[in-house]
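Technical note accompanying the year-one report. For the benefit of new consortium partners, we illustrate the data format agreed upon in the data management plan: each record pairs a sequence with a structure-token string. No post-processing was applied to the example shown here.
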Amino acid sequence: QVQLVESGGGLVQPGSSLRLSCAASGYTLDYYAIGWFRQAPGKEREGVSCISSSDGRTYYADSVKGRFTISRDNAKNTVYLQMNSLKPEDTAVYYCAAGVLPTLYYTGMDYWGKGTLVTVSS
């Protein structure tokens, strides 16, 4: 059984911070690359960040570089996305996903969580 469960979303004001968590069960995160994706209303799903299983390399979309940080805690089987300086454009449902290789293309991922909603508004 492979499960990914996101948490930490909510309603925040522009400029604030939020930390999302992705808890995995059924396998350990050291076997997989884990990515964060988001989908805003009327938009296609896009990759936000990804972390590899082999060497911990990280990848970020240009829109979040310098503001978001992905990290992995294998002991807790959890991946985090620290989101700083949030903008209204960051409003979306955020999903975590697992795959064999790190990618910011959602079609490359095999297992998905159900998502957590992040709303950035004044």
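Partners are asked to follow this layout when depositing records. The mean pLDDT is 94.
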